[in-house]
Amino acid sequence: MLHSASRKKKYVNKCHKLGLCISYDRVMQITNKTANAVCSDYRSQNVVCPPNLQPNLFTTAAADNIDHNLSSSTAQSSFHGTAISFVQFPNADLPSVNHVSCMYDVESASDMSSDILLPASYTEIQLCILPSKEPVVEPKQVSPCFCDNVTDEEYAWLENTRACLDGS
């Protein structure tokens, strides 16, 4: 709780020396093992989805862009991502749904943060730029085709509309 509230290594280690909590390194080891186990589960299922979603419940999802420091001209000082939220709605047929306990193989998971891997399709974005500043637009010869029949019908419609407006 101390780490999640403060994110300060100094505070966690001070409390550890007093015997009040585990060390900061142990917190990081548990965090990394859990993240690696969850990512391994995502890879095995080939989907990234919250592990605590309940089956047979009406579920909605909302997605939105996350943009930080929009005025930045480089990717070094800006962040762009996507936030996805899931909301589940219990109904009268299923008034109380027991939470599914999330079971991951944390013991065999790596405790190295560098081993937290997701498929490249989740983490790599292809460049989306024009090859040059001036796009090349091929000239196209277009010859207009006039059809007297269509033009006469359009004029008749316009005259009919004018007559209706003048009469009202």
Strand content: 5-15%
Query: How many H/I helices?
Result: 5
The overall pLDDT average reads: 78
> Which class do the helix and strand fractions yield?
alpha+beta
Largest sheet: 2 strands, antiparallel
| Intertermini distance | 75 Å
Give helix and strand order, one letter per element, not per position.
HHHEEHH
Count of discrete domains: 1
Overall 3D shape: elongated
Count of β-strands: 2
How would you describe what is shown here?
With 168 residues, this protein is of the alpha+beta class. It has one domain. It contains five helices and two strands. It has a two-stranded antiparallel sheet with strand order 1-2. It starts with a helix and ends with a helix. The mean pLDDT is 78.
Which tags fit this structure?
single chain, 168 residues, alpha+beta, two-stranded antiparallel sheet, 5 helices, 2 strands, 36% helix, elongated
How would the blueprint of this fold be written?
Elements: H1 2-6, H2 9-17, H3 24-45, E1 58-68, E2 79-89, H4 120-123, H5 148-167
Antiparallel strand pairs: 1-2
